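Researcher: Structure for this, please.
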Amino acid sequence: MEKKPFHPRPPRPAGGTRRPPVPSPRDKDPHATNERIRAREVRLVGDNVEAGIYSIQEALRMAQEQELDLVEISPTAEPPVCKILDYQKFLYQQKKRQKEQKAKSTKVVVKEIRFGPQTDDHDYNFKLKHAIGFLQEGAKVKAYVFFKGRSILFKEQGEVLLLRFANDLEEYGKVDQMPLLEGKRMTIMLSPKKK
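Model: Predicted structure, token format:
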């Protein structure tokens, strides 16, 4: 088998046809700062200044005297609201606050457990153990009895089963919704008890 000679690809011309988009300074920073503030007048607020309306030149001069940044806090106000502060420190504190809020807003996980109207004790205990584990992990438990065909005749039996289930989980979770029949399903909702 004969080898083909290797021909390197010619270099691209310096003035290429496609140029990457230039990110505008607004993309990186959510707030306009210093010379990027376009208003003629701004309303200054904060602890380190006397609140009031100042010309942009006066506000910039005050920020420079304090060796801080002039930051536009509310650009839609008339005139825009600005603060004199350390911008990097301000961004850091905002990110920190967002992280804390994200950590607080935990996602609610709902685990489902399915029973038949005539679930035996062994199967029941197995599912009960799983439910205890879910509640201890902080997840909600949605238990339901599914009635197939004519088994809808045993709906009282299903309700008794779900109430027994809720009773057995009393020390781990509280009932959000009592047994409720929706179509061929009877459901009960439990959420974990706060520690």
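Researcher: Any notable elements?
Model: The longest strand covers residues 173-182. Strands lie at 41-45, 52-55, 69-74, 81-85, 110-115, 140-146, 173-182, 185-192.
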